[in-house]
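User: Structure please.
Assistant: Input sequence and predicted structure:
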Amino acid sequence: NVSGSDVVNYAMQFVGKPYVWGGKDPNTGADCSGFTSYVYAHFGISIPSFSGAQRSCGQEVSYANAQAGDLICYSGHVAIYIGNGQIVHASTAKTGIKISDVNYRTPLGVRRIF
């Protein structure tokens, strides 16, 4: 049994780690989908390490019903919702893994993975 707060708490420990395009381990550097797949894998949940494929994982929920631990999908990007309108994500090579406002870009969808 995995809770959204478990996912968020685990993901948050990587804030400040580097972004590396194609990277799959946030300890050494991960891109957005590598980061999300790594976090879920920690809980025994396997999702593809490609942001486009992650947009069809789990079950779609409305943004109004987004909960901590849900995937927030963007065009060419994916993040983990932490609640209160914020996400944790592997953002760019310049900023690394960080917390952002969910609306820093227009979200395309929300996926509940567990």
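The mean pLDDT is 97.
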